């Protein structure tokens, strides 16, 4: 009886193993969910919906977009870190949510809490100003701001507030901070001239041809595609690389073969004319393909850089 019992157990175990293997080989076996941590209509959402359509065609399953806005993308990531759905649920979002978010507010995740499938886009954030200002470049702006204490800055996120606090300390600037809610809150203040300069995560791309929102500095690792005359922060002498990557992340426990399958499809998506058109021509961001290991390494290095700045400033501004 003991031998029969062992044989029965072995058969059941073997059957389960074969079943699991078949399911893994058939991934995805059901519709997928792309969770986006930003509201509908924004650049991440617009880009993500095109990406979802392209991925669906290659995967043979629908990729449904679910918006979970809040806390700078953290709401979506808090959902992902607890997901049991492995590769069938993933987040398409900005690296800033993973690198800076946990440093700014308590979260149940950090940069090591996820598996990074791939990066597909380089962000094009910038420091911008309005038309008809008495300065046209960063050097002239610094001269103006030093001569005019209370120069106003429109801030959207704790992330950009950290950057501007760092710059203000380095340059001895006395700024008036004006909190805003997203690009929609920032743009009217810059366009009307009510605020002198601001952070823009991408809103400035809509004013690329009109000159209504000149770019003073690039917050990407390289100069901006649409504004190549604007220097990077490192070129301006600031030891910080705040470059953003738009990335696909899955739960940490996702099987390797599922991650590889998603990565394969994402690489194909970065070569798809529809994804290239929406990314490079509409939201003016360069399409890239960056594998998961490279993404993780870049984000980990960025976290250490942010920690150093926070320590230098003696903490984050309230």
TrEMBL record:
Keyword Signal: yes
Signal peptide bounds: 1-24
Residue stretches in coiled coil: none
Pfam family, one: TctC
Protein's name according to its UniProt entry: Tripartite tricarboxylate transporter family receptor
Family: Belongs to the UPF0065 (bug) family.
High-level lineage: Bacteria, Pseudomonadati, Pseudomonadota, Gammaproteobacteria, Oceanospirillales
Keywords of this entry: Receptor, Signal
The keyword Signal appears for this protein: yes
